Amino acid sequence: MRYSHLLQKSRKQHILKYHFASGVISWVWIIVSFLLIGFLFSFSSLDLKQVLSGFVVSLVRTTISYLIAVILAVIIALAITANRWIEAILLPIFDVLQSFPSFALFPVLVVALKNSPEMIIILVLSVTMIWPILFSIIGGIKNRRQDFEDAAEIFGVHGWKRFLYLEIPELMPSIATGSIVGWGEGWEFIIGAELLVKTNIGIGTYLGFLGNNQENVALAFGIIILLMLLYIINRLIWLPLLTKVTSYSTED
Fold first, then answer.
1. What mean pLDDT do residues 154-162 have?
2. Candidates 1.10.150.320, 3.40.30.10, 1.10.3720.10, 1.10.10.10; CATH matching 18-248
3. Which residue from 34, 91, 54, 35 is spatially nearest to 204, judged by alpha carbons?
4. Which of 161, 170, 136, 157 is nearest to 247 (CA)?
5. Is this prediction's pTM over 0.70?
């Protein structure tokens, strides 16, 4: 055992080197992506203001919808798994609902909320994003360690303290994993949503404008730029978050 501290030190050094190398590679790709975006703008007829402002507006819509989806997913998952009878009734229903096409809600919402196009997009987008987050959280709840639950009972941790210091940290890996999938599905959906609702601004609105005017080359460049912007977000936010929450993993 006298060499155990050396092994632990070596392991920590290896982990630090790995994270450093991974961080350097990530930033290199991010810089390359920004340079490539600038190159595409300089050699295309894309309107820089339209693309960036449209992307920011779509990003805000997606972020609001994501926050609604993740909050509802946590509440629903904790509520239905608290009672096995409720879970037995609602889980199959949710399993069917996740297969329901969200675009089918548009005709109803357009009639009900015809003066609120933003609300229509956010509501349907939230419905689209919630399912992978919800089922990922339910899976995380099913795999919780019983010794943590027992320790919370022994030390009398209940209510908000239990929720903040036990439930949420335990479920963070599941929330992050489901969020990455839900976020991706949300961006797949929002382009069509902005075209159907006919908003004044949004990346989907601008790409639709290019398509309607048969500016095919500019449309192709716009799609590539959108993909690179989403890649930058994944590198800056989602991948670091996923790495961070592994520290909450109950297997460590």
1. 63
2. 1.10.3720.10
3. 54
4. 170
5. yes
